[in-house]
Specification:
This protein is of the alpha/beta class and 409 residues long. It has one domain: TIM Barrel, CATH 3.20.20.190. The chain has 14 helices and 15 strands. Strands 7-2-1-15 form a 4-stranded parallel sheet, covered by helices on one side. A 4-stranded parallel sheet has the order 9-10-11-14, covered by helices on one side. The chain has a 3-stranded mixed sheet with strand order 4-3-8, with helices on one face. It is globular and about 55 Å long.
Length: 409
């Protein structure tokens, strides 16, 4: 691992037409789950290393505990990133749930108190691909959102880029182990935690979600009520209609497929979206949200930027026959690029694609059959007009940004 860089420059204070910080003012390196290529993800150690390596923002995904505390985990299912499966005292917590329409088996954050969560230890989900991170499995606790904020507060040049995970499911559709509704408003908890911790500088907080309704609600209700005006980013899953798989949890926002969604409240929850699309938004996929009309609606209504999946911008095709545990590319670039970045920028939206990773298994072959490096991938994305990116290896992201700047000069 390269030596850490100096601390990042202060987060940009330039503002856009809304008066909020302009997420396009400079290229932002967002440490995806911290420096998760080097340390177990979503741990204070991963976030600390990301800051040392020069990341502009650290990214905590947020899920709730049984007693309503927000913790940093990529998912509410815990066995992929903690040692819960090895803990006999929690064996009876194993269960099966349908989260955002997808069947998931394991142990779930909403069935554990914060005190119980604090007894668990973090693991990397890809130990074979990330031996350096795996060497620290079992050493680090699972942090609360408040603890992540406290870390960022000690580093004035660093911001926090939280994601609300499954907000509609936690509030309206999910149940606990005993069958009772979870009924936890993670979006409100996020805002309340920011306020309680006094971390509300709009130059240091960006909120993101794969769902639409909670971001609209933040802009129209929750942030104004708290006296805040923070940048919001709409994440986009698979926006290729030819490869979309209904019900896969990645091709459509769950809130627009929520079986509890009342058709009479569509215009209230998503004001103007039906008119922008020319149809009811119920059941739409990310392909509909990636159209120029929908992007313009996002900008008018709530969003400062989008966070698209990288194959939405530079399509890939799978390479057949690659074993799932092989550390070599599993996809090839088609050579095509889509109009999504240009359309988003034309609408006035910043573009922060995800996720860049340095291991060969996550890279792609170019047209010549060579592995496209992280630096080459960053230069390609920035040349298309992206204004930042999520990356598991912040040092590589910072170096690639420097290479792009030198190339531009």
């Amino acid at each position: 691992m390269p030596e850490p860089t100096t601390s990042p420059a202060p987060t940009t204070a330039a503002t856009d037409a809304t008066g909020r910080p302009d997420l396009s003012a400079r290229v932002l390196v967002v440490a995806h789950r911290g420096a998760s290529g080097y340390r177990p993800e979503h741990t204070l150690a991963a976030y600390e290393l990301a800051i040392a390596q020069g990341a502009d923002f650290i990214e905590p995904d947020l899920v709730p505990t049984k007693d309503g505390e927000l913790i940093a985990r990529h998912e509410n299912e815990l066995s992929a990133t903690t040692d819960v499966a090895d803990r006999p005292e929690f064996a009876d917590r194993r269960t099966v749930k349908t989260v955002d329409g997808v069947r998931v088996e394991g142990w779930f954050s909403e069935d554990f108190t914060l005190a119980e969560i604090r007894t668990l230890r973090a693991r990397t989900p890809w130990p074979a691909l990330r031996p350096e991170a795996a060497a620290e499995d079992g050493r680090h606790a699972i942090p609360t959102f408040a603890e992540v904020i406290a870390l960022a507060r000690d580093h004035p040049g660093v911001g926090v880029y939280p994601e609300t995970k499954h907000p509609t499911w936690f509030e309206r559709a999910g149940t606990r182990l005993g069958g009772e509704p979870i009924a936890t408003d993670v979006t409100r908890l996020l805002v309340e935690t920011l306020v309680a911790e006094g971390f509300t500088d709009p130059a240091r907080v960006v909120i993101q979600s794969f769902e639409v309704g909670n971001l609209v609600r933040l802009r129209r209700e929750l942030l104004p009520a708290a006296g805040l005006d923070l940048p919001l980013v709409q994440l986009l899953g698979n926006a290729d209609p030819d490869r979309a798989r209904p019900g896969d949890g990645f091709s459509a926002p769950f809130d627009l497929a929520d079986p509890l969604l009342d058709p009479d409240t569509i215009e209230t929850r998503y004001p103007g979206l039906a008119e922008a699309l020319g149809r009811s938004p119920v059941g739409i996929g990310y392909d509909a949200l990636a159209t120029p009309a929908a992007l313009a609606w996002m900008r008018r209504t709530y969003a400062d930027g989008i966070g698209p999946w990288i194959p939405n911008l530079v399509p890939r095709t799978p390479i057949p026959g690659v074993p799932p545990d092989a550390n070599r590319p599993r996809a090839r670039l088609t050579g095509a690029v889509t109009a999504l970045v240009a359309d988003a920028r034309a609408a006035g939206l910043a573009v922060h694609p995800y996720t860049l990773r340095a291991e060969p298994a996550f890279l792609a072959l170019d047209q010549a059959g060579d592995v496209q490096s992280v630096e080459a991938a960053v230069i390609q994305l920035l040349s298309l007009g992206a204004t930042g990116y999520f990356i598991d290896h912040p040092d590589a992201g910072v170096a690639a940004r420097a290479a792009w700047r030198a190339r531009e000069r």
